[in-house]
Design goal:
The complex is a heterodimer of chains A (about 290) and B (about 230). Chain A is an alpha+beta fold. Chain A has 2 domains: about 180 residues, no CATH class; about 90 residues, Alpha-Beta Plaits (2-Layer Sandwich), CATH 3.30.70. Chain A is built from 10 helices and 4 strands, in the order ααβαβααβαβαααα. A 4-stranded antiparallel beta sheet of chain A has the order 2-3-1-4. Chain A starts with a helix and ends with a helix. The model of chain A has no long low-confidence stretch (mean pLDDT about 80). Helices cover about 35% and strands about 25% of the residues of chain B. In chain B, the strands form 2 sheets. Chain B has a 6-stranded mixed beta sheet, sandwiched between helices. In chain B, helix 3 packs across helix 4, helix 3 runs parallel beside helix 5 and helix 4 packs across helix 5. The model of chain B has no long low-confidence stretch (mean pLDDT about 90). The chains are: A alpha+beta (about 290), B alpha/beta (about 230).
Chain lengths: ~290, ~230
């Protein structure tokens, strides 16, 4: 078993060394396909990051009736906090709000226009799930002490819909790209198999079993897949950090994906896809060639 | 040992390559299969190692019908049948030694056993001095010897040769035939498809003549022409 494995690996390495230009083309093709695949993954991770970022900024304001007593306000806070998917409830006192307002718009001679503070007491409610915004807002409207609810429902719905669409489009595109990459890899490896058609025929004539013929090709596919993945990952790591650096110079504080965890998952994904496709590609193309010889 | 029973082969284009062949070949026999190109000799040989399949009829080797052997058992059948080709079918980027060793590698033999058997067989065919050469560095006759060495390295009971002297000069052809006779003497059934008249007439053996897909003559110690 170990002897066979060593033999197959040696055969695969010999074949890679001998194939030269063909092998270079195969690895280059796989690297380029995987880079395109990886760019897309990074892009969709950033879009998803962006929507989460904006969704987290969404909040609901619940304006209270002037008649609401302080003990009722305290009670309301507890009750709001108990609503599912509410993350944070913050009370904004009408006087504080008025001072804030005046500070923000110092040019307006408010005191000459309005003598009294026109702002109501309010709660600022931040949700853990932006998709629930409309539901929670409607629920708040049901409270007797709540005069009015200001929500960003329309925007929230759009952001939710957008993230949903990008997610679905992402899945479809990733599947298509994986399929396209598979086709490219199968065809590339097929070329190396066709180049060795005679060898396969001779192997069959001297009584080699299908798996004996297939293994060196599969190991070759694995090696090509690994090399292609590593090249594309190295390219993406440097390319992405360069892009992030330049982008931050132009638009600071833009929510790009930096998290090592997310990025590592993407790179791991590319590695798994690359090597799997290498093996699968080799398996499919060599099987087709073997079958046509029996 | 080998029984060909009413074998017919009709190609999809309607060409009848074999038209009801019945032949029986005993253990350790040496048989010439003669006839013009296109008579059906190669087709018949190919059927014996299942590179071709009869349209009807069957071939039995040691009473096993080849039609009962499915695709994943074919490699095991081929290990008991050595085949020699007119175009040698050698791996160009492997040395003489590697080409011969390859037939044993597929059978999962140990390295030391491979070395022992390959060295022995290369001695038998007279190529022990050239085992580290590549096929392209050798003459046609020497390449044919590699092919023979590969075919017999695991001592198969049957050796099939399809025009083994087809691309060789008369002297080399003669040497190759001597070698095949020697292998036959080591208890191997040998079937040689050929249209080399002088060989058949000089080294007299059983002759089966095929014409238009039919056996027209089958005689012990026969001649190329009746």
């Amino acid at each position: 078993m170990i002897r066979d494995f060593l033999f197959f690996t040696t055969e695969a390495l010999i074949s890679i060394r001998r194939s030269g230009i063909m092998m270079f083309i195969s690895i280059a093709t796989i690297t380029v396909s995987l880079i395109v695949f990886g760019i897309f993954l990074l892009l969709s991770a950033n879009i998803s990051n962006l929507t989460t970022y904006f969704a987290a900024k969404l909040e609901i304001r619940a304006y209270l009736k002037d008649s609401t007593r302080p003990d009722e306000i305290l009670d309301l806070k507890t009750r709001f906090e108990a609503i599912p998917s509410v993350r944070k409830v913050e009370f904004i006192d009408k006087n504080t709000a008025w001072e804030e307002f005046k500070k923000n718009y110092p040019k307006i001679e408010l005191n000459t226009l309005i003598s009294d503070n026109p702002l109501p007491n309010a709660f600022r409610i931040i949700l853990s799930d932006s998709a629930k915004l409309t539901t929670v807002a409607n629920h708040l409207k049901g409270f007797e002490s709540v005069e009015d609810v200001g929500d960003m429902g329309a925007i929230a719905d759009r952001i939710t819909a957008f993230s949903e669409y990008t997610r679905i489009a992402g899945i479809i595109l990733v599947s298509l790209l994986t399929f396209a990459t598979l086709l490219i890899i199968v065809n590339t490896i097929r070329l190396t198999v066709i180049a060795r058609q005679d060898e396969i025929t001779i192997m069959q004539l001297v009584g080699a079993t299908t798996s004996f013929i297939r293994w060196p090709f599969i190991i070759e596919g694995l090696i090509i897949g690994v090399i292609g993945s590593v090249f594309s990952i190295v390219f993406l790591i440097f390319g992405y950090s360069f892009f992030v650096m330049r982008f931050q110079e132009k638009i600071p504080f833009f929510p790009l994906v930096y998290s090592h965890f997310t990025l590592n998952i993407i790179y791991l994904g590319i590695f798994i896809v690359g090597t799997t496709l290498g093996v699968l590609g080799a398996y499919l193309s060599v099987s087709r060639t073997i079958k046509s010889n029996y | 040992m080998i029984r060909v029973k009413n074998v017919r082969k009709i190609y999809p284009n309607g060409f009848v390559a074999l038209d009801g062949i019945d032949v029986h070949i005993s253990r350790n026999e040496f048989v010439y299969l003669v006839g013009q190109s296109g008579a059906g000799k190669s087709t018949l040989l190919s059927m014996m190692y299942k590179a071709e399949i009869p349209t009807s009829g069957d071939i039995y080797i040691d009473n096993i019908a080849l039609s009962n052997i499915d695709a994943n058992q074919v490699p095991y059948l081929r290990r008991s049948i050595g085949v020699i080709f007119q175009d040698y079918k050698l791996l160009p980027r492997r040395t003489v030694y590697e080409n011969v060793a390859f037939a044993l590698r597929v059978m999962h033999f140990s390295r030391s056993r491979i070395r022992r058997q390959v060295t022995q067989v290369l001695e038998l065919v007279g190529l022990q001095q050239k085992m580290h050469h590549y096929p392209s560095e050798l003459s046609g006759g020497e390449q044919q010897r590699i092919c023979i060495a590969r075919a017999i390295v695991n001592n198969p009971p049957i050796l099939l040769a399809d025009e083994p002297t087809g691309s060789l000069d008369p002297d080399t052809s003669w040497e190759i035939m001597q070698l095949l006779s020697k292998i036959n003497a080591r208890q191997t059934t040998v079937i040689v498809a050929t249209h080399n008249k002088s060989i058949v007439d000089d080294i007299r053996k059983r002759v089966i003549a095929v014409e238009n897909g039919r056996v027209i003559r089958d005689e012990q110690l026969g001649l190329y022409n009746p």
